[in-house]
Design goal:
The complex is a heterodimer of chains A (463) and B (389). Chain A has helices at residues 12-24, 29-55, 70-81, 84-94, 104-125, 152-188, 197-210, 218-251, 263-289, 298-329, 332-343, 347-359, 367-370, 373-400, 415-438, 444-462. With 463 residues, chain A is mainly alpha-helical. Chain A has one domain (12-462): Up-down Bundle (Formate dehydrogenase/DMSO reductase fold), CATH 1.20.1630.10. The longest helix of chain A has 37 residues, at 152-188. Chain A is globular and about 75 Å long. Chain B has 389 residues and is an all-alpha fold. Chain B has one domain. In chain B, helix 2 (33-63) packs across helix 9, helix 2 packs across helix 14 and helix 10 (232-263) runs antiparallel to helix 12. The radius of gyration of chain B is 21 Å and the shape is globular. Classes of the chains: A mainly alpha (463), B mainly alpha (389).
């Protein structure tokens, strides 16, 4: 074993101070400024959604062929974003990817917030959201009227709620040692900052409760590590299952452009692709704002760039397969749908997607470009746009021209549609901004452990 | 470093396996020629996935910068040597086109769908595509192997960078050629039918069989006094990959079949419809149980993954199920009334034959090279590798 390129060579106290200091001082102007904007956007979304509750879904651009509009596009988009966190914490853990250590915490938090954001959309799309509890199968006085267990929409409820719960537990369990660290630091060390004494007490109380009496004995750590291993193994199939089930929403139908058996793995690859793009966007901002460049180094960003390249090519492969099999199929309807994507009235959306998802990741072949923060940041944004358009293409272009040309129509999103979409970013970032100020955005205990292992390896190397 | 010596006994067993394969095939051609053609194609396709699987494994390990696998990389690297045999077998497949592929029949011109597919499904196009693919597979695989072997002598750490570049090219070429090759060779056996998942299904089976094959090769070589460097730690990871890929196969199979069943489109369900009646009625559920459920449950055990004598038994069974899966994919176009149970003596004989060919080619080539990539800069780390959990 040699010393890893990821070693920091820092003392434990230094690591704690670097990571915890943002939580120990009063937020600065930049944070308040961003937070105000994001909260306003979230409130705007809530207002618009409230208005659709009162007025009805007629406020949206939905029409007869396109009865799933931007809400579903946004839903799939946000669920996709919510894949990277648990992928990093579970799958990369099983693959022994050490570089995940410093990015997993924030990525998992992002996952949880993205899934929360995604969950809003089906909820507000059902038309009568106050009846939404009908989707839960329980013995009831309505007949009893059971849910349709054969409906993929119901599977979605199960898949996403399971994924959310396991991700939340995984995230929280990872936080416990760090919360204990925060607790002990608050108790035994003088922590500077503007926090008044009652506020400090309140915060201490919360942190103490959340740390569930963690003492960090050897025995606790042994149990803890086993638990991480087991949770990672359980979370791995869950990561795949979520977007698989989301893809079933489309693929179980008989709508050309939706019914494709390749959808499950294709959606999963796309989800990882967009998730990593979002992690990259957020990490670049977080490391800059909190001066964590040593922890989330260029090498980390480069690795994420490579993952974007690989998953981008997997997504391109899936597109190719779809087109080739459609060409092979001798099925006129199938072929029409794909030609309509290329040349129809929504061709601009397809080509935007193509440029962003298929072409743009190839810049990552160049070492020079993928080690350039600005380029990475731009690519991550472009990929996010591309992945949003991918869902737009799948949902809208497949619907707007169905089997009967007499019912063809265009889907034109209204300003309410766009308002809710923009507002969803506000909702997501409001949570994220609260997170970075209240909980350590890097897994302190794991970073320390890696540092200790490096030290041991170094010592052994001398003998 | 001492080279591996293949004991005469093993060599004889492998030759006997090949003989069993040839005899079964010949007997098959006498008794049931149509079935024998299908069996021959299945045999060829199984060798193709093993040969490509080795290349895929090598490329994947190099691209991911994997350390644990360096020790066991040499055996899969040599799988490219099967491709010349495959080339000869494919000539046989070309001869069998009229017996195998409905789209090649003159009556196809009267079939509306087949007529529309003629631009793609025609004999000249088929032969040209397959020839191009085989040439690409052979030269790309050999290029990768050559760089790795040359590294043994030069010990040049920069050669690994070249290997990375070639591996990346291999991976891309593999992905897109396999897309077409699986459509041409297998999917077009039932030319009215199509599904987008098929390519991934064939790929999932390929990786599964490959990991089973690598485990068998590593343990067999070790039992005969070679490859002492590989130990339980490396086997553990190979076993884990076998576990992961049986789950992946099940995931892909479930997705394909469930979506087919759910949408219930006539042109699509015919695929499952055919495979659930007559002789298939028992065969298909058994495939799902043994290819996934049984192997998955067995491989959950940590102990089994670390004990060579236990792991190799599971791997033999997995490799066998990999072959059964190929039979499942290929045999669907045969008339199920006369087919009977799809796996009979001839198929069993062909499995031995495929094992014999792949084993003989890889193991005899293995005696000529260094047992581990001694020039690989990460070899030492790979030797020192140990599992933390």
């Amino acid at each position: 074993m040699s010393t890893s390129i990821y070693s920091l060579g820092k003392s434990n106290v230094q690591i704690e101070t670097d990571i915890l200091s943002p939580m120990e001082r009063f937020p600065g102007k930049l944070w308040w400024f961003t937070f105000t904007i994001m909260l306003s956007l979230a409130l705007m979304m809530i207002t618009l959604v409230g208005w659709t509750f009162v007025e009805g879904l007629g406020l949206l651009g939905l029409n007869n062929p396109v009865n799933w509009g931007l809400y579903i596009v946004n839903f799939v988009f946000w669920v996709g974003i919510g894949h990277a966190g648990t992928l990093i914490s579970a799958i990369l853990y099983l693959f022994r990817q050490r570089w995940r250590t410093t990015i997993n915490r924030a990525a998992e938090a992002m996952t949880i917030f993205a899934v929360m954001t995604a969950g809003l959309f089906p909820l507000i799309h059902v038309g009568r959201p106050w009846m939404v509890f009908f989707i839960f199968p329980y013995p009831n006085e309505r007949g009893p009227l059971w849910v349709n267990f054969k409906s993929p929409l119901l599977w979605d409820v199960f898949a996403i709620s399971t994924y959310f719960s396991v991700s939340l537990i995984f995230w929280y369990m990872g936080l416990v040692p760090d919360l204990a660290n925060m607790r002990d630091r608050m108790k035994f060390e003088h922590v500077p900052g503007k926090i008044s004494s009652w506020g400090r007490k309140l915060k201490y109380g919360f942190v103490r409760i959340l740390a569930i009496g963690w003492v960090g004995s050897g025995k606790t750590w042994i149990h803890y590590e086993k638990m991480v291993m087991v949770l990672a193994s359980l979370a791995t199939p869950l990561v795949l299952s979520v977007h698989t089930v989301v893809s079933f929403d489309f693929a179980t139908s008989v709508i050309p452009g939706w019914h494709a058996t390749i959808f499950p793995p294709y959606f999963v690859a796309g989800a990882i692709y967009s998730g990593f793009a979002m992690v990259l966007t957020i990490m670049i901002i977080t490391r800059k704002a909190f001066k964590l460049q040593e922890y989330i180094s260029m090498k980390h960003l480069e690795n994420m760039g490579i993952i974007i390249l690989v998953t981008g090519m997997m997504v391109s492969f899936a597109y190719t397969t779809e087109f080739i099999v459609a060409a092979y199929s001798a099925n006129k309807v199938e072929q029409y749908v794909f030609m309509n994507r290329l040349q129809g009235p929504y061709a601009w959306a397809f080509w935007t997607m193509f440029a962003a998802n298929v072409v743009s990741p190839h810049f990552m072949w160049s070492k020079k470009l993928r080690t350039n923060v600005v380029v990475l940041f731009l690519i991550s944004i472009v990929v996010n746009i591309g992945m949003w358009f991918e869902r737009f293409v799948i949902v809208i272009t497949s619907l707007h021209r169905d089997y009967m040309p007499s019912s063809w129509d265009m889907f034109i999103p209204t300003w309410v549609d766009w308002g809710v979409f923009v507002g969803s970013f506000g909702f997501f970032f409001t949570w994220y901004l609260l997170f970075v100020r209240t909980l350590p955005s890097i897994a302190i205990a794991e970073v320390k452990m890696d540092e200790a292992n490096d030290l041991v390896a170094k010592e052994l190397g001398h003998h | 470093m001492k080279k591996f010596e293949l004991p005469g006994k093993i060599k004889n067993i492998l030759i006997a396996f090949i003989a069993v394969g040839v005899v079964s095939l010949v007997a098959g051609f006498i008794v049931q020629p149509q079935r024998a053609w299908a069996g021959f194609l299945a045999f060829t396709f199984f060798l193709i996935i093993l040969a490509l699987g080795g290349g895929f494994f090598t490329a994947l390990q190099v691209m991911s910068g994997s350390i644990w696998s360096v020790v066991v990389r040499r055996l899969p690297e040599l799988s490219v040597n099967i491709i010349p045999v495959i080339a000869i077998l494919l000539l046989g497949v070309f001869l069998g086109i009229p017996n195998l592929y409905e789209w090649s029949h003159p009556e196809a011109a009267n079939d509306h769908i087949l007529h529309q597919k003629h631009w793609y499904l025609n004999i000249a196009g088929f032969v040209i595509r397959i020839v191009i693919f085989v040439v690409l597979w052979f030269f790309m695989g050999r290029w990768m192997k050559k760089i790795s072997l040359k590294m043994d002598e030069t010990k040049d750490p920069n050669a690994k960078k070249t290997l990375l570049k070639v591996a990346t090219a291999y991976m891309l070429i593999f992905a897109y050629t396999f897309l077409f090759a699986s459509i041409d060779l297998v999917m077009s056996l039932e030319p009215h039918w199509y599904t987008t998942m098929f390519i991934i299904y064939a790929f999932a089976g390929m990786v599964f069989s490959t990991f089973a094959g690598i485990i068998i090769l590593v343990v067999t070589v070790q039992r005969n006094g070679g490859l002492k460097e590989a130990n339980a730690e490396h086997l553990h990871d190979l076993g884990r990959f076998l576990l992961a890929f049986t789950a992946f196969w099940a995931y892909i199979a479930l997705s394909q079949h469930m979506l087919t069943w759910y949408a219930n489109l006539t042109e699509e369900t015919i695929y499952l419809e055919r495979r659930l009646r007559d002789g298939w009625a028992l065969f298909t559920p058994l495939l799902w149980i043994f290819h996934f459920v049984v192997i998955f449950l067995i491989l959950l055990s940590r102990e089994i993954k670390r004990k060579p004598e236990k792991l190799i038994k599971v791997a033999w069974f997995a490799l066998f199920m990999g072959f059964v899966d190929v039979i499942w994919m290929v045999y669907g176009f045969l008339d199920s009334k006369t087919l009977g149970f799809p796996f009979q003596w001839m198929e069993a004989g062909l499995f031995f034959g495929a094992v014999g060919v792949a084993g003989y080619v890889i193991l005899t080539s293995y005696t000529k090279v260094n047992q581990v990539p001694i020039g690989d800069p990460q070899l030492q780390e790979s030797l020192d590798f140990h599992q933390t959990y």
